[in-house]
Design a protein that fits this description.
about 180 residues, alpha+beta, Double Stranded RNA Binding Domain, OB fold (Dihydrolipoamide Acetyltransferase, E2P), 2 domains, five-stranded antiparallel β-sheet, four-stranded mixed β-sheet, 2 helices, elongated
Length: about 180
């Protein structure tokens, strides 16, 4: 999981550290939280009464989660946004009974090959044996697969689910022994 900041200069180092540690603690033991963006929007000097706004957006497998808060100062706005983000994430995990927290099946049911990898961006695409193109993020790799060493054409096994823009691999691993060639 990666945390991205927009306008963090408005927050003290201690506040940024607090937010980072709290978000990282939400990701511990789970593989559903992929990326988080923290947008700090200080009040405009043109407004009579200043309102500070913090928006936290998280890419959670298969969907996006957004929480924001507005307060008179940034510190309470950040804490309120973190509270809302945490509550919503935990609510979603309870609904889904997060399959990443449960033991994984011995091998994913789908087979395919690595079609394209965008190393700088941290994602790529698989081509299933049925000819379907499946997006994957580097965090979906499991069972010793290293993102930096992926090669196009490599045989893999995977599970996938509906993503925002099409099918998205939730787990990518080595194929089971004796898996047929494409």
């Amino acid at each position: 999981m990666e945390i991205h900041w927009r306008n963090p200069g408005e927050l003290s180092e201690a506040e940024q550290t607090l937010a980072r540690e709290r978000i990282e603690s939400l990701a511990e033991g789970h593989r559903d939280l992929i990326d988080v963006w923290v947008d700090v929007e200080p009040s405009s000097p043109h407004h009579r009464k200043g309102v500070e706004r913090v928006t936290i957006r998280g890419q959670v497998r298969g969907s996006n989660l957004v929480a924001h808060a507005e307060e008179d100062t940034l510190r309470p706005a950040l804490r309120a946004a973190l509270d809302r983000f945490e509550r919503e994430l935990l609510r979603r995990r309870d609904k889904r009974q997060d399959p990443r927290a449960m033991p994984l099946p011995s091998s994913p049911p789908h087979l395919g090959i690595i079609d394209r990898v965008f190393f700088e961006e941290g994602y790529g695409f698989l081509l299933s044996d049925g000819g379907e193109q499946i997006y994957f993020h580097r965090n979906a790799l499991d069972d010793g697969l290293a993102f930096e060493t992926l090669e196009e054409g490599r045989r893999v096994a995977f599970n996938y689910e509906a993503g925002n823009e099409g099918p998205q691999a939730s787990i990518v691993t080595f194929p089971p022994p004796g898996a047929s060639a494409p």
